[in-house]
Request: fold
Amino acid sequence: MTVKAIRGIAAAVVLLAAGAQASRAEEAVPAALQPPNGYTAAFSAKATGVQIYTSTAAAGSAPTWTFEAPLAELSARDEVIHHYAGPSWEAADGSKVTRDTSAPVVTVPAKQAGADIPWLLIKVAADPAPGILSKVVYVQRISTSGGIAPAKPPTRAGTKVGVPYTATYVFYVKSN
Reply:
């Protein structure tokens, strides 16, 4: 192998490493979305689903898209978790968490806010059923792709659409 070829390979490795670091830096979670001290990430899950929008119109106004609910399936460990209105997350083992409405949802725009739904930190309350979600206190939605309401306004009130999205959800529990 020539010195020129070795230098080319070395340069490629350096560029790949720099690109990987830049990619990780882009996905850094903002401080505003970190749960309070005393909570640790129990697991994360990849979500694929839709954000459901309904067209609504006030009297005399043109219809607009209004967010209704998510509908997604999350894959975590060997578990499937369903995500739906509430917002709620329900695992196949029967455990479930739902938004704690006494705490505000923290929202941070996605990196590409015009195309991707925002990142969130949501305080949740667990259902008494035991299982993977029974000790979860916070759910963080990050690394979103898609899910924004259609750019074209609806033509009539009452129309529903599901806009595809993907995201990573991180589930936090109280530290021991």
